[in-house]
Amino acid sequence: MNEVLPEFKHTYYLTPEWRQKFVDDLGCTIVNENMYFPEEVASGSSCFLEINSDFSVVIVDSIMNIPLRFTRIPSEDDFWIVYYDLSDSVSKHVIDDVNHKIGYKSKLSFAIVDNKIKSTYLSTVGERFYTLRLFIRKSYLKTFFKDTEFEKDFKDVFDDKKTKCSFTVTSTAEVK
Hints:
11% of the residues lie in helices and 44% in strands. The chain is mainly beta and 176 residues long. A hairpin with a 2-residue loop joins strand 4 and strand 5 (55-64).
């Protein structure tokens, strides 16, 4: 991982209080569901919607104006983060000490990551970053698959004592 890049550490929760760290340390402002970045950091904003106590959505649409490592620190909340990155450029996402190239033009634009696993996103200055993130409590997701073949086939996915992550290749575009 590039140690030269300044690092911003934060935590996600199913509720909106995680945004306060962005306000305190990065100078973001919050208006209703929207969080706006200060111009010196990034042009753009994010939107957080708490659908219910078990399910939340974050959409980020920004262009970074400075290089920055966003390191998500695990929290005690037991939920999945479903990432779908639609960025035009290729960026790097480090999960469990493994580098992954992400973005619309990369081989990886979709991932499911356990909130209890640390991850880092390395920003690309001047390139648009557009992502959809779903936060889904594990116990909530499990209720949809109770007593089904799916639950038996994916029993380890629903084992709350294990941390894990999953990646899906959604594009065959070659990364250069």
